[in-house]
Amino acid sequence: MLSVKVNDGLNVQANRELYSSYLYLSMSYYFESIKMLGFAHWMRLQAGEELVHTMKMLDFIAANGGRAKMLPVEAPQFTWASPLDAFKHVWEHERVVTGLIHALVKVAEMEKDDPTIQFLQWYVKEQVEEEESSDRVLKKVKAAGEDKVALQAADRMLGERQFRFPRGFEIFPYASQR
Ligand SMILES: [Fe+2]
Ligand SMILES: [Fe+2]
Predict the structure, then answer these.
(1) Is the pLDDT of residue 20 over 80?
(2) Percentage of the chain surpassing pLDDT 90?
(3) String of DSSP letters for 94-125
(4) Residue 3: is its pLDDT beyond 80?
(5) Domain spanning 4-162: which superfamily?
(6) Distance in Å, CA 42 to ligand 2 centroid
(7) Beta carbons of 90 and 137 less than 8 angstroms apart
(8) What does the pLDDT read at residue 178?
(9) What is the model's pLDDT at position 103?
(10) Which ligand is nearest to the CA of 132?
């Protein structure tokens, strides 16, 4: 059974994960509009991952006696000055999210909620990966600078990214229960 504080905190974080998905989708269409389809692909996968982060958290709430609540999703930024500007934004955004996850762990600790503390470790680890990958990508785009050929090479490279579901995550959990 989740306490009200933990239930609320998880609902708010699920909303931030969905906002992240929305933000990366916005970036994906920005890249499509400037014909950088590799970057657009990378952002689209990023948006997909964030949607999974959202559902995984809402599923945890529901499976632990809480109630998943959909909150209004903020509109993300619409356009960026350059690819570098967008990837800087990703880098900064992931660091903000890491801070939010850590604050949520603190709430669960104060509520002495061990299952939630355990559950959130997945997100703590995921954020380490997200920070590393956004750092790598930002460095690549920074290194390309104004060099069109280098930027196109980075675009092609990011276009090769593949999607993976987190282990144990079921996107259609009700299908087997009907
Ligand atoms: Fe996330
Ligand atoms: Fe993320």
Answers:
(1) yes
(2) 92
(3) HHHHHHHHHHHHHHHHHTT-HHHHHHHHHHHH
(4) yes
(5) Ferritin, core subunit, four-helix bundle (1.20.1260.10)
(6) 13
(7) yes
(8) 72
(9) 98
(10) 2
Q: What ligand is nearest to the CA atom of residue 128?
A: 2
Q: Which two tokens stand for residue 6?
A: 């933990």
Nearest ligand to the C-alpha atom of residue 130: 2
Report the alpha-carbon distance of residue 51 to residue 66 in Å, rounded.
20
**What are the Cα distances from residue 136, in Å, to 33, 84, 154?**
24, 13, 11
Distance 157 CA to ligand 2 centre (A): 20
Residue 95 CA, ligand 2 centroid: distance in Å: 9
Residue written as token pair 């657009």: 40
Average pLDDT on 106-115 reads 98
Q: How far is the CA of 130 from the centre of ligand 2 (A)?
A: 6
Q: Using a CB cutoff of 5 Å, list residues around ligand 2, an ion.
A: 130
CA 149 to centroid of ligand 1, rounded, Å: 31
Residue 49's SS3 state is helix
Ligand at minimal distance from the CA of 16 is 1
